[in-house]
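Risk mitigation, structural track. In case the binding assays with aspartic acid fail to produce interpretable data, a predicted complex structure has been prepared as a fallback.
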Amino acid sequence: MHSTGYRTHNCGELRLGNAGSEVTLSGWVQTVRKFGSITFIDLRDRYGITQVYFNEGMNHWLDAHPIGREFVIQVTGKAVERTSKNAKIPTGDVEVEVTNVNILNAAATPPFTIEEETDGGDELRMKYRYLDLRRPTLRRNLELRYKVNRSVRNYLDEKGFWDIETPFLIRSTPEGARDFVVPSRMNEGQFYALPQSPQTFKQLLMVSGYDRYYQVVKCFRDEDLRADRQPEFTQLDCEMSFVAQEDILAMFEGLFKHVFKDIKGTELTEALPRMTFDDSMWHYGNDKPDIRFEMKLRNIKANNEVFCEGIRGSEFGVFNNAESVIAIAVPGAAEYTRKQLDELTEWVKRPQIGMTGVVNIKCNADGTIKSSVDKFFNEEKLRDIAAFCGAIAGDLVLILAGAETRTRKAASELRLEMGNRLGLRDNAVYKPLWVIDFPLFEYDEEGSRWVARHHPFTSPKPEHIELMNDLSRYAEIKANAYDLVMNGTEIGGGSIRIFQRDLQEKMFAALGMSKEEAQEKFGFLMGAFEYGAPPHGGIALGFDRLCALLGGQEGIRDFIAFPKNNSGRDVMLDAPSSIDESQMEELGLK
Ligand code: ASP
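Fallback model:
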């Protein structure tokens, strides 16, 4: 029972047991169907849809007061058993015979259909987001998001974590992306930055002794446009004191399983697999392996070292001159036609992939073998290479050759593409894992310098600290850093932090920062480390992405109530926008 006079029940509530009683419903008109002298309306709200009908007498009223799609109406009448039941909806056994109707608000014709599938394009849907959000698809997504949030809070609450807010108007923290900045009116010429994450604050909370912190928090990154990135997004951000990597992995594996059980209803009983960063790169070509399917990379040659004898002694310059030669064996694809192979060649030549071609070996089902390079390799060699790649009769071996980094990346993309084509990447299958032992540094080709792979607060493995004194060995240094990965997507990452001033100073120096610069930017944090900082570490999960994955979808946008478009615009508000001259002046921007 609802206390306002607007309704006695919501639109998803009535069941056969209600038949015979008088009810009042309020909601939106989904459809109006006229059958002779009877009119049926599907009335919708967040809870569901109920069919109501207007008999002959009431129809006269309707003729004088036409009701259209998306009108907000209130109806009163008797709930009755339906003669033709609709098993597809929970209210499908009953309908309401309307005796009184009240138009609460008229509606203009919506610019697109408010149905499971809509005919509205992306921009139109975003411009009228409040209408799009009425669609069951979006409503389910937001419900799932709310439930994931609730599940996360229940788990962390149980484990003693406190939700503590951290500020949005801060000073730049370098986490790899550009900052959004906010001009300060009271401090002319000075700017706040919006946080890319609460990283330094959560570490300070550990110094303050809060032990276990979390927040479901907005983060802001002014990154270049990439599909499915949002300039503001949500993290589940966590930090713990007196922990080593193992404690964090156990705690958040527990969280993941808890949420998975709540949302998907199934228990993940086995421990999540763990893979080192190096293994992931070697076998999958990236640091977020999709382990729903095999088809691992076969390293015929890597960094000029030959691993497959079959390629030795040929005149084939493409392999001989390449730094790396990497293959995959595509199961059951030996029947690929000439046309399909040509199309694959075009695919690898696309600028995003950047290869000059792809070599193939067909291991035909009848036992014969055929290759695009049989001019250079005799049958025995081809069989050698195919065997090295793990190919069996019926498989197609695809081989890429070139510079190590590009070839590995291309092979990784090709593997995923073939996985898609073969239907091996089922969104209903979930394969989470931990990727561990990330490198501490990574070389930034553009800036010709070493940068922190995760962020500069991440601790090196203790046994690798020594190597920080030798620039030539930076690539070997591993960090206590880890990522949670699922289905080829990173859902989160974190690290055990540096908590001593001298090591933090060493880290900033390794990143090419002068002592003065480090002090100016991070004096507050290093200062805090001098007043009793506990060992600590944490993790942040991409909340939008986690929800999308659990919802079985790839895009995050429809799991956010009011997202921005791919150019970072809010098309409903038309933001960003210019501001008044006077505002500019006030902010000292003129
Ligand atoms: N602040 C980090 C990030 O946003 C996560 C962490 O290290 O906890 O990636």
